[in-house]
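If you are new to this repository, start here. Below is one unmodified record pulled from the training split, so you can see the exact layout before writing a loader.
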Amino acid sequence: MKYALRGITAEELTYTINRIKMDKDTKIEIKPQFSRTVRRVQENDKLWFLSLEVKVESTDDSPKPFNLKARLVGIFEAEDINSDLDRQDLVINMTEVVYPYLRAAVSSLTANAFINPLMLPVIPAGTMFPEDRGEPTTTNLN
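And here is the target side for that same chain:
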């Protein structure tokens, strides 16, 4: 299997402040929610797109000081993808390539909003999504 990153773009970057009242000693737990989508181009089976998204959303049960959504798309060229295992490895590798850019975008977005920058955790390759760990899949593979 061979692959190369051909491009990366930010499809969506949004930040909205939520004016919520809290006690001074209240601890807020920010739990980012990650999702990804993988697509292939029918006209060119070597071209792959990986969309990686993170959201932080305030709810009535779990208020947050802000809502955030960041979605980046990596464009990859890949060859010698001959089995389901090759596809799974490619998806994990593409995720590993795009994720640091997503971390940087979120940190930059929150810093530019004049709040303490949100630093997403470093996540080891192959552990970010349940299907990468051999658990039931929810990733959309087209």
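Two things worth knowing about this chain: The chain is about 20% helix and 40% strand. The first strand starts at residue 2 and ends at 17.
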